Amino acid sequence: MKLLKELNSKNFAFKLDFKVLGLSMFLADLKEFERYLKDFLDNGPTFQNVAGMISSFAGMVGDALIMLGGLKVGGALKVIQGIGEIVIGISDIAENGVNAENALTVIRGLTNIAIGIGVFTGNIKLAAWSVAIQGFTTIIREIATNWDAIKQGDWSGGTRWL
Predict the structure, then answer these.
(1) Which of 3, 8, 12, 95 has CA 20 to 30 A from 142's CA?
(2) Cα→Cα distances 153→111, 126, 144, 145, 159, Å
(3) Residue pair 116/145 in contact by the 8 Å Cβ criterion
(4) CA 91, 113, 126, 7: dihedral to nearest 10 degrees?
């Protein structure tokens, strides 16, 4: 009974929002893991793809914990993921110069750190805005990856999301 008395719309919405964010982040991190795994299988192990798989896996575990209500540990794992992505991006910049791919990886890392801080501190607005920015960078990455096909009117690459 005490739990039911303490449950009000504000508490319910707060927990529901973090669960929805956790799910959306899990799906995005799963896509990132898939991208690094494909690179690993196509090109063999490199620092970027191995570190990317480890970083994405840490993020997915954090996302799962966030969905289950483990905000502190989940937020900390998102920060770890973000640091890993920043290292991956900077390493690639040092080797190949700045390009859209590595710049977006660094931005993704920064947004994961912001997400982690938002989740860890219970600041849903910081976490949600960071997820939105990260989603925008994912859209940019997809457009950049498929730009030649888009210019030719080939939209078949978009069906792999379905």
Answers:
(1) 95
(2) 32, 37, 14, 14, 14
(3) no
(4) 150
- Apex 114 CA angle, 8 and 25, nearest 5: 70
Report the 10 Å Cβ neighbour count for 19.
14
Write the secondary structure of 24-61 as one string of H (helix), E (strand) and C (coil).
Answer: HHHHHHHHHHHHHHHHHHHHCCCHHHHHHHHHHHHHHH
Q: What is the pLDDT of residue 149?
A: 81
Identity at 102, one-letter amino acid code: N
pLDDT in tens, 60-97: 999 999 999 999 999 999 999 999 999 999 999 999 99
Q: Return the pLDDT at 120.
A: 95
Distance of CA 160 to the CA centre of its chain: 19
3-state secondary structure of 109: helix
Cβ neighbours, 10 Å, residue 125: 9
Residue 10 or residue 103, greater confidence:
103
Taking residue 104's Cβ as centre, other Cβ atoms within 10 Å add up to 18
Query: What separation, in Å, do the N-terminal and C-terminal C-alpha atoms of the chain show?
Result: 44
